[in-house]
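In response to reviewer comment 3 from the previous cycle, which asked for concrete evidence that the modeling workflow produces usable outputs, we include below a single protein chain processed end to end. The sequence was submitted unchanged, and the resulting structure tokens are shown without manual editing.
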Amino acid sequence: MNRRSFVAAAAGASMAYAAAGPKTKMGVAATCYLTVARPRDTLAFLEQQAANGAGGIQMQLSSLEPEYLKKLRSRAEQLGMYLEVMGPLPGADDTQFRKIIAAAKEVGAQCIRCGCLSGRRYETFDTAEKWKAFVDNSRSSLVRAASIVEKEKFPLGLENHKDWTNDEMVALMKQFSSEYFGVCLDTGNNISLLDDANDTIDALLPYVMTTHIKDMGVKEYEDGFLMSEVLFGDGFLDIPKVVAKIRQARPKANIILEVITRDPLKVPCLTPKYWTTFHNRSGEVLARSLRSTRQMGKKDLPYISQLSKEEQLQVENRNVQLCLDYAAAKIAI
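The workflow returned the following structure tokens.
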């Protein structure tokens, strides 16, 4: 099945869900399909996830044209699904950011998810000076974003995207304290920064606007450890407990799935370059992380690079479907 026929089939299947409604309130982030499918059209992605039985989607808007936005909102309401928007933080010229916020409000979106860094801190920066420049630029963007969403009264969730440690992220939230400026809580990302996943959840819980829920597996390798998003129930996080904690503390926040199907990521925490931007982290943090990896490490982590593109596409969507089935059966959302 090619991509075109796959989307067409999903659109057809979603008609049945229009009457039955979603099987779970858990939504699906478009980044679940980061490896192979890479969705481009928001409406088509909505139809696909309706076929999967999701409660909503989180994705960038593929068009800001009024007619498209009207059609997207109407279809989401017909399917009984919610919308969240992904978008970049504003630069010195915040015109596009303002347009995205206006469009997000037009489609009835409940939140916008943003991030400071698209890559990984320990891979992106090879000098402390480059990291400092990133921090300064990020703070300027965050000041602009916080001002705009406060004025527009529209929630923004800043993802902990392998950039800020727990302590740094909490400091940012306190600096930009606002009813409308908070966190997109990713339950796995900060493991790569040697933060304990449950500590991350507890630290960021008061600021959650939206979420990226994922279960995680880890395994040692010569330069540190490997980490992978895995199917719910196959990793070391107690996902039902995590979701219950979020629901209790932040009942308005949507629970969004982000299971990324790919080969394991390398976290080379035993190499000098990894530590270039970490000046206040002790050996105790490293020791705790490696000890946890040995205690919770898996014998095998999932790989897909050996599969054909068509097989990868099938595995990618199957993983989303299986996580949604798990959510419907075992998670109170």
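Residues 128-152 form the longest helix (25 residues). We consider this sufficient to address the reviewer's concern, and the full set will be provided in the supplementary archive.
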